[in-house]
Amino acid sequence: MLPYLRLCRFPTVFTALADIAAGFLLTHAALNPASELGLLLGASACLYLSGMVFNDVFDVKQDTEERPNRPIPSGEISRRNATIFGACLMAGGLAFAYAADLRSLIIASGLAICILLYDGVMKRTPLGPLFMGACRSLNLILGASTAGIRLAGAFQQPLLWVAVCMGIYIAGVTWFAKREAKQNLRLPLLLSLLVINTGLIGLAIWLGDFAVQLGIPLPPGIANSQAVLGIWAVIAITINRRAIAAVIDPSPKKIQPSIGVMLLSVIVLNATFIYFKFGNAGIPFAVGVLLLLLPAIGLRRVIPMT
């Protein structure tokens, strides 16, 4: 069991679940219908984990050189069995999405295609980070896919703005992690950090109620924007502090922990979105999302996130 959990980097799946919760709550008044939310969580988890599996399936040659202890190159799991495992996860994700709603299946199918394109082709091109960012955006939109009566309900504001900004953020994180297993170069790390902060600043435009001043039609949240902006600042400072340390010493021992912080911050950001929209009434929802940090942090002690 443990080799398969390592293969799919299981602790990272909780960031995907946080996306679904945020996407759902940014387009719904509450957690109803809970059955739809449960199915969307299942769809996202399966699709996300399948992407992690196929990542290793396509990267066997590179991992043999750089990460010989990964489950496939070490011989713990055959490439064939890993492929079957990934295919079953992806099929399960699409089945969960179909059970939720036909609109969910449409979004999930787009996400599955994006995952396969990234893992199989785009990862090794300059467009790789963009595709990974698109996967994150689509995952948030998947959480909103049952909103309204038409597919367009999943693309309403502020969800669409948040999804794009999170996509930019994850594109930067992906670029930052591109050569995490080797000694890296400072310039690519600095440029990727710029992309990461572009996504974070985009989020601050909504969270800090700057959208009105900039003429951007985004509905404001109920919570005090200054307080929420303070939460955002803590997240941004934490991310940048770790990232700058990695830029100063661009070695795997510095880069990999900083990537872990960037990924776990996705959970905190999603909780912040929920709190901003609902105010004090959303605290139970936000805390519920934050609790996803516990299994993610606990499991990463035995199962690496990168």
Automatic annotation (TrEMBL):
Tagged with keyword Hydrolase: no
Entry keyword annotation includes Flavoprotein: no
Listed InterPro entries: Prenyltransferase_related (IPR050475), UbiA_prenyltransferase (IPR000537), UbiA_sf (IPR044878)
Localization per Swiss-Prot or TrEMBL: Membrane
Spans traversing the lipid bilayer: 12-31, 37-60, 81-99, 105-121, 159-177, 189-207, 227-247, 259-276, 282-303
Alphabetical list of Pfam families matching this protein: UbiA
GO molecular function list: transferase activity, transferring alkyl or aryl (other than methyl) groups
Keywords annotated in UniProt: Cell membrane, Membrane, Transferase, Transmembrane, Transmembrane helix
GO cellular component: membrane
Bilayer topology: Multi-pass membrane protein
Principal location listed in the UniProt entry: membrane
PANTHER family for the chain: CHLOROPHYLL SYNTHASE, CHLOROPHYLL SYNTHASE, CHLOROPLASTIC
The protein, known as: Prenyltransferase
Source organism per UniProt: Thalassoglobus polymorphus
